[in-house]
Amino acid sequence: MRSFTLAAAAIASTFAVAAGAQETPAAGAAPAQEAAPATGATPSASAGATATVSDAEVTQFATALAAVDKINKDAATPAAEKQAKMAEAVTSAGLTPERFNSIGQSLSKDPALQAKVAAAMQAKGGAPS
What residue range is the signal peptide (predicted)? Predict the structure, then answer.
């Protein structure tokens, strides 16, 4: 369970950085160059990783990530209870904690997957901060 908590926090942080970068593309040419392979026709290693995450899993992940982020930020919830609540939130969203962590690890390396999760998060009302 301890590794789940650490991974969830890291995923939320990674996603917040990735979502912020997508919202502010005018910062420089590098973000535009990174986004091009994700939407271009050129196959890449990241495209293969995205293919292993279904659209349903992207939606489930976005739902779980929003819930995990909310639990993680809830100062009223004792730390000892947060782990169980986060695992329950992930399971309620339709993923196992292991699959949630796996998708989260792919997210940090895959701009196309980041874009899909960002779109799913926006459809649900916003990204974690």
Answer: 1-18
